[in-house]
Amino acid sequence: MHEAVAAIASCGVSPLVRIGQTGLSILAVTTFGSCLTFQYDPNSTDEFQHAAHGVIVPLLSTVDDARSLVKAAKFPPAGQRGFGSPFAMEKFDGVTQTEYLQQANESLLTIVQIETQDALNNVEEIARVPGIDVLFCGPFDLGNNIGHPILDGTMHEELKEAVLKIQRVAKENRKASGIYATSGDQAREYADQGFQMISVATDAALLPAAMHSALTSARGSYVHSALNMAKGAIRGK
To answer: What are the DSSP calls for 41-108, one per residue?
Structure first.
């Protein structure tokens, strides 16, 4: 992960680490700037020691969870993050250890995903925790958890209201709001609604779609394919 974070940052893109289950998966995340987030195994915020520009924490449900996260992510007095790694500051051009220590708490993002019924119930308290920077809505998991899964791309009205609640609470508490989108068009709609951090799509969705589109174009239409098959059959006689 240390090498991946450094490589991403060298391209002028902000690397964000999603603390989650085992495995490494790259997800394209864009807002009006650019960032790239990838999922990593350890359930800790040691990712900051590798010079990540922020951490994303899924399935956070309570205000105590939020406070514990801030303690792990921030240097004293805001938290209890240790200052042992030499790797973080070297990835920021011209930043000394002292400057990194002084700037990290304000500059690095702590992002929580609101995607369960418990998190939705507690979202006001979570948003009021100092050090939480972004409330990120995961509409698919949230829909499943509140009993209104997204089916065939359709969101239930209660799920839409929950999404708007998360955004409203973030704004009221001067936090940024984020959300996962499934297409560029949907991402544009969310941006127009005021969301500041928007996941446009994942590689798992984009790559198969691009390959399908390319192969469809290469094969041509059904009529074109049928004509080519007929020509081949004639030549074969």
So the answer is: S-SSSGGGGGT-SEEEETT--SHHHHHHHHHHHS-TTT-------SHHHHTSTT--HHHHHHHHHHHS
